[in-house]
Design the sequence.
């Protein structure tokens, strides 16, 4: 065809001077001399020399406080010049055929699912816009895991593009037609395909969950950093692994997506590549209709220290840009906003000629030789194999900093006029027959008209040239992906039980908090010869608060650069020591980043074949409620490790006030099915929980993680009662029976530091002729789960003897009423209310926190010993065992104001 661009042409000559005098230039001749001097340097000495000279000029300009006012973004053109593009190494026509088959099957899968099951959903347009982005990676860059000793590359796929990844796996023979027919129908375990990347639901396929949006970019950054951590600490070599994160331009509105860019640059993570699919559209409309998202993102990434590669225009534009000696085309590209670029994707060539090129006679002259059809065919760079290959190649060769590739694409590309660039394209789940015909014809696939209505899957055959080429490329790159390893490559020996003995023996009269007990326990685990090097302490800038500063000198703080300064506290025993092989991940003030590190460490058994044991400790109030989406993703990822909510409780952390006091995280963490939750009161309870957690997660490979709350109140730690282990782990045990059972008897439940208030309440009740057994409840969450399991088993097996729940066995023959006091909301103990064999009264800390003494706060929330005693006496009254006068007398004698404000009303 006339005027077709020759893709193999290489323009080695330097561009002609682009200087054009501006009206505001007071001395155009001087300006011309400066510009021509720089162009001469480029022509004779190359771009590196010119870059060096500019750097020196800017350094000197700073001496005079002269700083360029311009933005961090460059012209709206490709970063890599045409003459810098490497030769494309693949068979472009073969890869185009493969891409077309994958496109068809991705659409067919979603279309067929929605025809058969209306409303089941799925997405057509995201993969349509990003197919080339993935295919370049699959064919030339993404390393698999099949090579011995290789972790391969770790890839965070854009969640809405999942249909395309399935379609490629189908072409490879990894997924059957029967499986493809079950897109988004997973209730039959292992038979269907997840809506998005979900490792827990497809444990041999997906590695990372990337929906909800924003989590993929964040976790990819910390995954890349953790890969370096493993290498620098000598755990395993990860130097050949690259982390690729695919995300959408609209996704970058999520704070998590861009919030941690600086750490990637600061750590020099040249093993990290972001590929941003800039189709200029969110879910409902343009990302920056009145602006330019690619320019905005370029400034953000460059400002954060990333290497940025823009892939904006396809090769059809090369000839036009090469003849743009006066820069009029660049200026026009710079000034057109995204909403208008979106319009151009659906407009005719005549409209584009008039609206885009018609603003300047020089532009019209530039395209005078092109037909309207050819103008319509001026592609975006994100659909050009050659442009993308050049960008990926440069990213792979880049050293010293992470890379962001910003690829300009069209949402719904090749799907037809009702999809391409349409604001409603994200919501369209199927095509009409005529639309399928247009799509098939655009892809040149041999799907007969008679079959179009059913949109059949197309496979050219396992011996076809397309499949052979595709498989050969994957073999050369280390095997098919995505593929989740799922099992560690090494077996870890667990520590001997003696390590935990000191915590089970108690502290006699010495006082300690459960936080102090944990710090001591962690220190011992780090020194253990069996697992010590695999322990990963993670803390968001609160190590000293939690009494963990001894770890700074013991194992060091991880820093990829070591310690380039002399710490102000050097010479002291607990000085701040950073080291390349440091073990502590001291993350700064970022719970999101810390949780991302927890996920990276907790999944290292799968990603790198190395079981690691993360202990992530944080201010409990700033846990789930701030980063709950990430904790949910940790469950999806099958992460393993310990999450410690320190300074927990709404009255135990007495001085910090409303924003700091946690009374609800056990409820929040209970929503994660694989999270095992404990609220411990004593060091021995913590020791039993940690020891058993190591057994389950590391010894038996259970896909669970633990949430344990720790508190900062000091009190004596008693020795572990004989036979208490099962109850600690199951959630409830009788800590202390009444010295003498009286006519009136109650059961008192306590958790955490409120257990001490329960013990004192028993003493108060004795003065009113009431005896009490005291129970430690380590986990209402686990008690409820077990009771529900037993209830379900009985319902589904009505003819079999019912399996009693642990709660029913533990309380068999126990007489109520039952009073349960907690430093968390009443809803926490109330989880087991309907399974109790008698009257159940939950006491908790509903309402906002506040600052005061512990005694005042506990009276305010009615969980102090006196309030617990009143609740017990009143429960006896309600059961008809005690008169109202006794309760009234106790209110007066114990100083409990019946007219005080309800804590929930403050």
Sequence:
């Amino acid at each position: 065809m006339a005027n077709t661009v020759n893709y193999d042409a290489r323009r080695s000559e330097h561009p002609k001077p682009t200087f054009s005098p501006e009206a505001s230039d007071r001395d155009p001749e001087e300006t011309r001399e400066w510009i021509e001097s720089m162009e001469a340097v480029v022509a004779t000495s190359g771009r590196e020399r010119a870059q060096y000279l500019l750097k020196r000029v800017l350094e000197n300009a700073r001496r005079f406080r002269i700083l360029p006012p311009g933005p961090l973004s460059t012209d709206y053109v490709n970063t890599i010049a045409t003459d810098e593009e490497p030769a494309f190494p693949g068979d472009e026509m073969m890869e185009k055929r493969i891409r077309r088959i994958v496109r068809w099957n991705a659409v067919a899968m979603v279309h067929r699912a929605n025809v058969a099951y209306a409303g089941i959903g799925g997405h057509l347009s995201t993969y349509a816009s990003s197919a080339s982005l993935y295919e370049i990676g699959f064919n030339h860059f993404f390393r698999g895991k099949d090579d011995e000793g290789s972790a391969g590359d770790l890839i965070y796929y854009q969640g809405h593009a999942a249909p395309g990844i399935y379609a490629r796996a189908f072409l490879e023979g990894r997924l059957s037609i029967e499986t493809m027919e079950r897109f988004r129908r997973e209730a039959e375990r292992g038979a269907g395909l997840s809506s998005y990347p979900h490792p827990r639901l497809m444990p041999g396929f997906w590695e990372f969950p990337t929906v909800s949006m924003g989590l993929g970019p964040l976790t990819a950054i910390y995954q890349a950093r953790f890969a370096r951590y493993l290498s620098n600490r000598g755990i395993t070599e990860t130097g050949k692994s690259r982390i690729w994160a695919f995300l959408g331009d609209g996704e970058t509105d999520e704070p998590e997506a861009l919030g941690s860019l600086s750490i990637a640059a600061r750590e020099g993570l040249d093993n990290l590549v972001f590929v941003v699919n800039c189709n200029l559209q969110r879910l409902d409309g343009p990302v920056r209709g009145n602006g330019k998202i690619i320019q905005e993102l370029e400034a953000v990434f460059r400002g954060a220290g990333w290497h940025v590669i823009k892939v904006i225009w396809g090769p059809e534009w090369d000839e036009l840009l090469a003849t743009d000696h006066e820069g009029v085309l660049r200026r026009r590209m710079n000034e057109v906003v995204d909403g208008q670029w979106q319009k151009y994707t659906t407009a005719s060539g005549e409209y584009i000629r008039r609206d885009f090129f018609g603003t300047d006679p020089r532009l019209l002259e530039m395209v005078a030789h092109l037909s309207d059809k050819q103008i319509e065919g001026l592609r975006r760079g994100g659909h050009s194999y050659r442009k993308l290959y050049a960008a990926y190649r440069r990213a792979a060769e880049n050293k010293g900093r992470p890379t962001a590739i910003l690829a300009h694409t069209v949402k719904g590309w090749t799907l037809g006029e009702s999809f391409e660039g349409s604001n409603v394209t994200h919501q369209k789940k199927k095509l009409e027959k005529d639309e399928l015909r247009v799509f098939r014809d655009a892809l040149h696939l041999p799907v007969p008209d008679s079959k179009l209505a059913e949109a059949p899957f197309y496979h050219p055959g396992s011996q076809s040239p397309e499949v052979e080429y595709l498989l050969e490329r994957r073999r050369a790159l280390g095997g098919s992906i995505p593929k989740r390893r799922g099992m560690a490559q090494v077996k870890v020996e667990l520590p001997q039980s003696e390590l935990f003995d000191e915590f089970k023996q108690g502290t006699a009269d010495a006082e300690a908090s459960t936080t102090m007990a944990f710090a001591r326990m962690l220190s011992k685990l780090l020194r253990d010869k069996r697992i010590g090097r695999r322990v990963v302490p993670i803390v968001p800038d609160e190590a000293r608060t939690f009494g963990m500063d001894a770890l700074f000198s013991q194992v060091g703080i991880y820093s990829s650069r070591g310690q380039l300064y002399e710490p102000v506290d050097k010479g002291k025993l607990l000085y701040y020591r950073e080291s390349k092989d440091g073990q502590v991940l001291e993350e700064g003030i970022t719970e999101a980043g810390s949780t991302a590190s927890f996920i990276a460490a907790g999944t290292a058994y799968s990603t790198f074949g190395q079981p690691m044991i993360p202990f992530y400790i944080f201010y409990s109030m700033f846990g789930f409620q701030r980063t709950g989406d990430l904790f949910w993703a940790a469950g999806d990822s099958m992460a393993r490790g310990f999450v410690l909510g320190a300074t927990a409780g709404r009255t135990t952390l007495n001085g910090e006030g409303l924003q700091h006091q946690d009374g609800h995280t056990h409820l929040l963490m209970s929503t994660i099915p694989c999270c095992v939750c404990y609220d411990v009161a004593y060091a021995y309870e913590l020791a039993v929980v940690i020891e058993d957690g190591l057994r389950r997660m590391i010894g038996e490979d259970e896909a669970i993680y633990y949430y344990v709350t720790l508190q900062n109140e000091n009190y004596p730690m008693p020795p572990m009662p004989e036979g208490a282990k099962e109850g600690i782990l199951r959630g409830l045990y009788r800590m202390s029976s009444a010295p003498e059972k009286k006519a009136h008897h109650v059961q008192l439940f306590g958790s955490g530091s409120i257990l001490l208030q329960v013990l004192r309440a028993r003493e108060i009740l004795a003065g009113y002729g009431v005896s009490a057994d005291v129970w430690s409840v380590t986990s209402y969450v686990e008690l409820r789960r077990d009771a529900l399991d037993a209830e379900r088993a009985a319902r589904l097996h009505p003819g079999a003897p019912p399996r009693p729940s642990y709660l029913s066995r533990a309380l068999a023959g126990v007489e109520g009423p039952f009073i349960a006091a907690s430093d968390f909301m009443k809803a926490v103990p109330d989880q087991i209310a309907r399974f109790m064999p008698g009257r159940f009264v939950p006491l908790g800390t509903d309402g906002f926190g506040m600052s005061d003494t512990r005694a005042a706060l506990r009276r305010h929330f009615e969980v102090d010993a006196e309030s617990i005693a009143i609740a017990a006496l009143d429960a006896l009254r309600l059961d008809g065992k005690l008169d109202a006068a006794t309760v009234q007398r106790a209110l007066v004698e114990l100083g409990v104001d019946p007219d005080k404000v309800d804590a929930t009303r403050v």
The first helix runs from residue 28 to 45.
